[in-house]
Design goal:
48% of the residues lie in helices and 0% in strands. It has a domain of 49 residues. The protein is mainly alpha-helical and 90 residues long. Keywords: Coiled coil, Nucleus, Ribosome biogenesis, rRNA processing. It is found in: Nucleus, Nucleolus. Belongs to the CGR1 family. One of its GO terms (biological process) is rRNA processing.
Length: 90
């Protein structure tokens, strides 16, 4: 072996990341956190307005469906249900 071969084999170890283990002062070790980005989730006004319109349309459709279901339920209740004074009149 020559001196050059030994020098290259010694100089080529892979760089290891710093090992983070037990802390010296006894505190619990935690992963490093990403920086807080307050503006990361903000959307434009136009996008929020479109979302509001879509949600309003969905809510109106759900209300319509609930009203239909309630009307069917009430029709079933009123017909043929005796009370103390007789049948319920519509």
């Amino acid at each position: 072996m020559s001196v050059e071969a030994v020098a290259t084999s010694v100089a080529a170890p892979a760089a290891k990341p710093a090992v983070q283990g037990i802390r010296i002062n006894g505190k619990q070790w935690h992963e490093k956190r990403a920086p807080l980005r307050k503006n990361a989730g903000l959307t434009s006004y136009q996008k929020r307005a479109e979302d509001t319109k879509v949600l309003a349309a969905i809510k109106a459709k759900e209300k319509e469906m609930k009203d239909e279901k309630e009307a069917e339920r009430l029709v079933g209740l009123h017909y043929g249900r005796p009370t103390r004074t007789g049948l319920i009149k519509l």
